[in-house]
Amino acid sequence: MAYLEVRDWIKEIKAKSKKDGVLKEYGDLSRDDLLKMYRTMVLARRIELEEKILLRKGLCRFFIGCGGKELIDVVIARALNPADPFIGYYRNKAFDLYRGVSIKQKIYEAVGDVRSESNGGMLQPSHSSYPELGILPQASPTGSHALEAAGLSEAIGNPTPINGLMGFPNGRFKSDSVVCCSIGEGATSSPEFHRAVFYSVYNKTPNIFAIYNCGWAISTSVNEQFPEGNPTTSFEGFKRFGLLIEDFDGTEIKESIAAMARMIEHVKSGKGPAIANINVTREDSHSGSDDQTHYMELKLQEYHIENDPLRKAARQLIDDGLFTPDELSAIYDQVDREVLETSAGVTADIHYKKPADVLTKVYSYNYDTAAERWNKLISDRGEIRTARYREFHNKGYFPTAELPENQPPMTIRTAINYSLFDIFMLSDDTVLLGEDVADFAKEVFEKGEEVTGKLKGKGGVFLTTKNLQRVFGQNRVYNTQLDEAGILGRAVGHAYQGRVPFPEIQFIDYMSPGYQQLKDRIATTYQRSNGKVHMPMVIRTSYGGYKQGAGAMWHSEANLGTYINIPGLHVAVPSNAADAAGLLRTAFVSKDPVLFCEAVALYNRRDWNGYNIMARYPALENLIPFGRAEVYNQRAKNLAIISYGVTIPMSLKVMELLAERGISARVIDLRTVKPIDWDTIAQTVKDCGRILIVSEDRFYGGVGPTIAAYIADNYFEWLDAPIRIITARDARVAYGPDGDEICIPRQDTVFDAAIELAGY
Q: Does the reported pTM lie above 0.85?
């Protein structure tokens, strides 16, 4: 039923006398409360109509239907504390409006105007981001946002202090917050939604998962997805552990108010989370490109119209004598004028995006401001390190009480361990989570020193996080379930709350289950929030082969090309202890998500075929800027080898062997492969003219070909020979030393290519 037809239908309702005590049936809400709720519903529907009008005019490029969800939106918005975080999806227009988003901002969203406070015109309409109103950034892959909700609630409940390194002293949200996640019934089929409910049950966090069940995910019926068409069915067993399941009609105002009150009471009691299967209607098709009349039978179409919550709520409010038909129908005319006037003003002066409006909101990292943050931490707490390291040594955690920067050259593993200790000492805003990262399981740790003091502890499968839990406690360093998507989603919650999480993915090979969290949510947050929400996070992961044959498929991946193709993500790859420390510090204070790749083959290695790769731990003040390469043998001009990570020691050994042949080779250690130091590469091409690129990544979409393409496109005339690229073979690494030999770059291959290139 069209907007004005609903108005005219209301006018035909017969006015009723007010019932005594009727407001108790509405949860003791006042008449003004109910009027605001209904007016917001009408406003959301009218803005949706305006979006469709603008779509026909070519001013709005996309339409997503929210009609039928307005009642439950305003019921939830009214029931929650205004500061409670809301992690929704693209059908929550009425919720936004109730929280205070203006008509103008919604029209800005519709036309993609750069003045949109929500997302600056980055996203389609109804993808909201109003963090000042507790509305956190939304994205199109809807099922994945549930993990953020579970993670945020867990982060809010974590008692570790938040000092405000990221700008939120004591945390973004209060400790008694309820975290509400709205989601369509189709998206609940995603594994991430199921994991989110599991985590909230496991941690007994105050989460509410509101499933808006209109019966259709585009043209897929809810009965094709769940037994009895009910997405809560698979969670019945969790009721044993405190999960409340509600099943109610979101088109009935009294029923919805009562059910929401029960859920809030339950989650605030500490018993556990709540999940609701909420019947809603779909007053329009899924989106502007869909037509539900093609697949929804006529009788069902009529059901949705007849159960339109705007109609049903009006009928109920009038029948209870709270409002007259004229009072409610007048809202339609008032809202119509407001939306028309606002829309005309916006569309007469649309501000379209310029390149800088988009490109400056992908990354927030700035080296100077990052260095300021780091130096402030040193200034505030740096003096405690001497006493603390003496304490750690006395407890047997380190072999010496000397500060790490005063020690002899060390391995990468040792430097990473020291770096994490330094970072955790300098700031309370850090947590580290992942599989096996803690020294002990929670139940062992809680037995105290009497038990743990007799055990060596774990601290990561490569011991990079050893003793961190012993020192900084279970709330800051803890094991997670074996679930990469869950590790990253829960880390997002900590970042939202104001911490800098260090989630660990044990091997980069196992990033795949968490790829959607990384690519679609973590890396996009800054851009899709119009630069208002940062996602500070250091995702540590081991990568690569050269494990003396111990690796194989899923333990020897080095496919960094996959990750440099993700806008919004920095990728750091240290090749020695000094760089590992300097880059990890920069990552910590960058305010952006950083994928920190640690070569397993270098963790404990002291030399590469006789070439010493040990390095001193850098002075605490030293950071390494992203996108700044290290140049070895800078005066060499016969040729240059460009590489990174584990193939740097190999390249340096080749450089040494070439010198014995009278060939001077320069080696460029990129240190970060996103961003890449293009200036150093350009100067190297001009100086040397012969370029050999060595990458453990594969050829297709890899780092090596990316660099080669850049050189060929920009500096072809400076080349004295064809660019040579050595990459891993187009196969997953096979088991055994022979597998390494076949599949990944070898020292002799690099040497032979360099000899050939030098003689070209």
A: yes
